[in-house]
Write a structure and sequence with these properties.
The protein is about 35% helix and about 25% strand. A hairpin with a 4-residue loop joins strand 8 and strand 9. Helix 4 packs across helix 5. It is of the alpha/beta class.
């Protein structure tokens, strides 16, 4: 059995796989990482391999504690990958994006795939039918846009996302909601259409923490998969087993 761990800026997402079958997946705050590890191995003592992917510097104690229970692979730019990486600066490529492209490679072989991860940032990653990865784009995520308007202005409040009707706001708050949500919807639709114009046969995957919020608002045909990154991490773990 495998354990894959995705350490983000505020949350740790983790999943247990029996080969490629998801057994369980949860998340917790970063402060509870060590206690989470102990609980996981109490319930699933047959885990033999683990992979850690972290967007920030990992403390040695986190790696060391997990290493007490099983073999651990720390995902990095030196890890083996199953696709051809044509990114101009591979050393700066986020490991979360590597995992997403890996999931696309295995789930949709010989297919043009655009993976959109709607989280803290919105990332766009494209892999073609020849298993070549070229890159994509990065833009501010939904909450980042709300926080930017509050932090960088004198009077705009900090709001939480709310559904909006129409595209013309009649109050400051409704204008802000429409600006963020409608703006992101238009961005997502526009980017998808750009790719579809160039690549006739295109599969679009929407994932990330805000995927559920935008999936029902998009007119383009997409596949929503909240576990796509964890799937990619498990594929990478299998690919890097010694």
């Amino acid at each position: 059995m495998n354990l894959v761990v995705d350490i983000g800026n505020t949350l740790v997402k983790y999943a247990v796989y029996d080969k490629n079958r998801l057994v369980v997946g949860h998340s917790c705050e970063c402060n509870f990482f060590l206690s989470m590890v102990k609980e996981i191995f109490e319930v699933y003592p047959k885990i033999e391999h683990a992979l850690i992917a972290s967007v920030k510097n990992l403390e040695n104690k986190e790696y060391e504690v997990l290493s007490l229970f099983c073999k651990v692979h720390l995902l990095s730019h030196n890890s083996n990958i199953p696709f051809v990486n044509k990114y101009a600066t591979p050393e700066s490529l986020g490991i979360d994006r590597i995992a997403l492209v890996t999931a696309a490679f295995y789930n949709y072989p010989k297919t043009n795939v655009l993976v959109i991860d709607a989280g803290t940032c919105v990332t766009y990653d494209f892999i073609n039918e020849k298993k070549e990865y070229f890159g994509g784009a990065i833009s501010p995520g939904m909450m980042m846009r709300y926080k930017a308007m509050n932090n960088l202005t004198a009077k705009l409040p900090l709001l939480s996302p709310e559904s909006t009707d129409g595209f013309i706001g009649d109050s400051t708050e409704s204008c802000m909601h429409i600006g963020v949500i409608n703006g992101l919807v238009q961005e997502l639709e526009g980017v998808i259409n750009q790719y579809r114009e160039r690549f006739k046969f295109l599969t679009v995957i929407l994932t990330g923490g805000d995927a559920h919020f935008f999936a029902k608002r998009l007119k383009n045909s997409i596949f929503a998969n909240s576990k796509f990154l964890l799937e990619g991490l498990n594929y990478l773990l299998e690919y890097n087993k010694s």
